[in-house]
């Protein structure tokens, strides 16, 4: 047993590879530097935490700036037609089709109803509300009837398009939605029009 151990010891010493001395430093990675730990790398990437301002006036000003920036970002996204930025009442393919249909009309009578309202106010001032109340009432009924009739006509055409292009989609409330959009001037409609007048709706 002792002879075998003695014979094995020179074999280890005569090998081609000699173990390094314990005092020699271990192999280093990179350009003479040890490989950094993942935690150190992540710590360097983190931005320093900025404490909130203690002054109420400064904090309120920063809050207003953030709200203003968020509103601008949302409005820009709405102008581009991004779905997430639209109000719930304007979302969905059916509402988008209804908007495109109204915006593509060359002439929408309800869009110019504002001038009829001005004419009604002028009529009230000139004739007097007390003396000609029946005439003013008939004018008001006529304006409401024109808006309702045109909106129902447009709603029927939109429902037909929905059945053809979006089968199974609900058209509930589409007439009221069309009426509200059609009475606004084209330049003041929200979301803004994305089709030109007379453009075919595809």
Fold and architecture overview:
The chain has 202 residues and is mainly α. 56% of the residues lie in helices and 0% in strands. Helix 4 (93-104) packs parallel to helix 7 (174-182), helix 5 (113-127) runs antiparallel to helix 6 and helix 6 packs across helix 7 (174-182). Residues 6-30 have low confidence and may be disordered.
User: What fraction of residues sit in β-strands?
Assistant: under 5%
End-to-end Cα distance, whole Å, is 96 Å
- Rg from Cα: 38 Å
Instruction: Give the quaternary arrangement of the chains.
Output: single chain
Entry keywords:
single chain; 202 residues; mainly alpha; 7 helices; flat
Describe the secondary structure blueprint for this structure:
Blueprint: H1 2-13, H2 38-45, H3 56-79, H4 93-104, H5 113-127, H6 133-165, H7 174-182
Helix pairs in contact: 4-6, 4-7, 5-6, 6-7
Provide a concise account of the structure shown.
The chain has 202 residues and is mainly alpha-helical. 56% of the residues lie in helices and 0% in strands.
């Amino acid at each position: 047993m002792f002879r075998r151990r003695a014979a094995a010891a020179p074999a280890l010493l005569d090998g081609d590879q000699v173990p390094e001395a314990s005092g020699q430093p271990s192999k280093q990675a990179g350009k003479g530097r040890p490989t950094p730990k993942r935690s150190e790398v992540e710590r360097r990437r983190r931005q320093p935490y900025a404490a909130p301002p203690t002054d109420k006036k400064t904090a309120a000003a920063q809050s207003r700036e953030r709200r203003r920036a968020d509103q601008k970002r949302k409005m820009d996204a709405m102008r581009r037609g991004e779905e997430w930025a639209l109000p719930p009442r304007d979302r969905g393919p059916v509402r988008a089709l209804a908007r495109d249909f109204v915006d593509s009309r060359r002439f929408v009578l309800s869009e110019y109803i504002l001038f009829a309202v001005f004419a009604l106010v002028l009529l009230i001032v000139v004739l007097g509300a007390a003396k000609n109340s029946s005439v003013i009432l008939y004018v008001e009924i006529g304006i409401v009837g024109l808006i309702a009739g045109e909106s129902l006509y447009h709603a029927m055409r939109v429902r037909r398009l929905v059945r053809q292009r979006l089968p199974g989609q609900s058209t509930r409330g589409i007439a009221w939605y069309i009426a509200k959009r059609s009475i606004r001037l084209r330049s003041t409609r929200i979301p803004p029009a994305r089709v030109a007048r007379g453009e075919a709706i595809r």
